Amino acid sequence: MSDLRIRLARREDVPAIVALLADDMLGKGREDASDLERYYAAFDAMDVEATNNLYVVETDALPVAGTFQLIYMQGLSLGACKRAEIEAVRVHADLRGQGMGTRMFDWAIEKARADGCRLFQLTTNRTRDDGQRFYDQLGFEASHVGYKMKL
Amino acid sequence: MSDLRIRLARREDVPAIVALLADDMLGKGREDASDLERYYAAFDAMDVEATNNLYVVETDALPVAGTFQLIYMQGLSLGACKRAEIEAVRVHADLRGQGMGTRMFDWAIEKARADGCRLFQLTTNRTRDDGQRFYDQLGFEASHVGYKMKL
């Protein structure tokens, strides 16, 4: 894992990112890799939003070994706080349990801090028991209830 | 409450919005209305982000009777879903318990749907019991744990 590199996603990464998103206990029922056009369109929409960045993790063995999305949100609340939110975190099945998630979060947290964020937030589905242990260990506080509504 | 109007916040609304943010069980320890400059700077930063919009609610009696922030986040996950997140929701103390929160949420959900979002999300502090009842009643699903880390 020493050769891990994190960089902004490029358009040609989209199929590999979608494959990572789909190779997941919840994602497998939600993604459709046979319809890549809508994912390319989403990538293009994100690409012009300076506050919304998609990252991939490269290793020597795997060009797309992991992915996450980091969104910055300036607000007035919390003393005019800019916050960072992380979404769509995935580690390639071959590399799970080897510390890559921690490396990704350390990097994302440091990046957000360097970019002036004073709060880092995420939600994780209640059914992801491993996720909750992971975030507890990273030092996150499970202070909030995460509500969702499909539109 | 029939005269309620929702509009984008303007720079001159900042002091009234900060007063609303501070008049709250958690906000009162987090906001500092004596230092408005940083709130104006935050407003200016938000104002250039097309995906990050601050709203106020007007009534005939109160020019700033409520406020909320609505952020859109395009992503690849969930079938290339664009999601909406609501933050910093406040109702003026004189108007609580009269249905204004529901009107604000109905408006925000409809706006997000019209703008192409397919998921609407928020987190609420576990100590806000009233908040959780409110979101349950609105039809949100408490499917996630909300993690925060101060940077």
From TrEMBL, chains A, B:
Matches recorded under CDD domains: NAT_SF
Key words, A-Z: Acyltransferase, Transferase
GO molecular function: acyltransferase activity, transferring groups other than amino-acyl groups
Statement: the UniProt record of this protein carries the keyword Ligase: no
Alphabetical list of PROSITE patterns matching this protein: GNAT
Organism: Cohaesibacter gelatinilyticus
PANTHER family: AMINOALKYLPHOSPHONATE N-ACETYLTRANSFERASE-RELATED-RELATED
Name the UniProt record assigns to this protein: N-acetylglutamate synthase, GNAT family
